[in-house]
Amino acid sequence: MADLRFTNFSFFLVLFASLLVAASCRGHSRNALFIFGGSWNDVGNNNYMETAIKANFLPYGETFFKNATGRASNGRLVPDFIAGFAKLPLIPPYLSPDNNEFTNGLNYASAGAGALTETNVGMTIGLKTQLSFFKFTKKHLDVKLGEAKTKTLLSRALYMFSIGSSDYITFATHKKTELPSYAREEYVKMVIGNLTDAIQVINMSW
Ligand SMILES: *[C@@H]1O[C@H](CO)[C@@H](O)[C@H](O)[C@H]1NC(C)=O
Ligand SMILES: *[C@@H]1O[C@H](CO)[C@@H](O)[C@H](O)[C@H]1NC(C)=O
Questions:
Q1: In contact, 191 and 116? CB cutoff 8 Å
Q2: Given a cut of 50, is residue 22 above it in pLDDT?
Q3: Does residue 25 surpass a pLDDT of 60?
Q4: In whole angstroms, how large is the CA radius of gyration of the chain?
């Protein structure tokens, strides 16, 4: 198991074709940050899952947090810096029991996640499930703030994605995916198609 875990992480940290998309609205200051994706963006969701894909041990976290937080980094991740630049607090993981203050946004990213449901299935929160968590958050916001304020909040928020590397790794290694028999072009189209769908779902959610 330790070997598997290590192999996964050395892969995750390599620069594979990954995608950072910031879809947001015209010129307003950002009041909230909603974060999706894999290990580059996971700030601790996998800590709350039964999975071998975890970064909850040192030296992860040792330079900034002085402890392992679940981030696959010794320090902060890009969403942490973006939150800082936007003068927001660190955006907590969705699965954390301490995520009660979610009017600044939430982080749904899960190390190992892909745009395709089949990628690392059962070991991570795939993009579709991340979107369903986002929809739960919207419902909670509707109750907490009212629908009009929620609409404003969501339309001015910043949405970050970093996903795709695990889809391509699993395809390239023909492991841990139930979709190994596609042609490359077809597979890439499915990855991009599912990511595009996700962005559209978010775009239509306010
Ligand atoms: C460090 O992290 C471990 C595991 O997540 C936790 O059990 C421990 O309480 C943490 N220590 C501090 C000082 O936060
Ligand atoms: C999304 O991925 C699934 C496989 O998980 C695939 O069957 C489907 O065609 C993809 N959707 C798009 C729009 O490409």
A1: yes
A2: no
A3: no
A4: 17
Supply the DSSP symbol for 45.
Answer: G
**Model pLDDT, residue 18:** 40
For 85-117, what is the HEC assignment?
A: HCCCCCCCECCCCCCCCCCCCCECCCCCCCCCC
Place of tokens 């996998």: 46
Task: State the pLDDT confidence band at 10, using cuts at 50, 70 and 90.
Answer: very low
Q: What type of residue sits at position 144?
A: K
Structure tokens, 148: 């009009």
Enter the pTM of the model. 0.85
Report the nearest-CA residue for atom 4 of ligand 2. 116
Task: Report d(CA 61, CA 71) in Å as an integer.
Answer: 7
Q: Give yes or no for a contact between 113 and 191, defined as CB atoms under 8 angstroms apart.
A: no
Residue 162 near ligand 2, beta carbon < 6 Å: no
What distances in angstroms separate CA 113 from CA 64, 107, 154, one per listed residue? 25, 13, 24
Give the Cα separation of 28 and 56 in Å (integer): 36
Question: pLDDT-derived band of residue 87, with 50, 70 and 90 as boundaries?
Answer: very high
CA of 107 to the centre of ligand 2 (A): 24
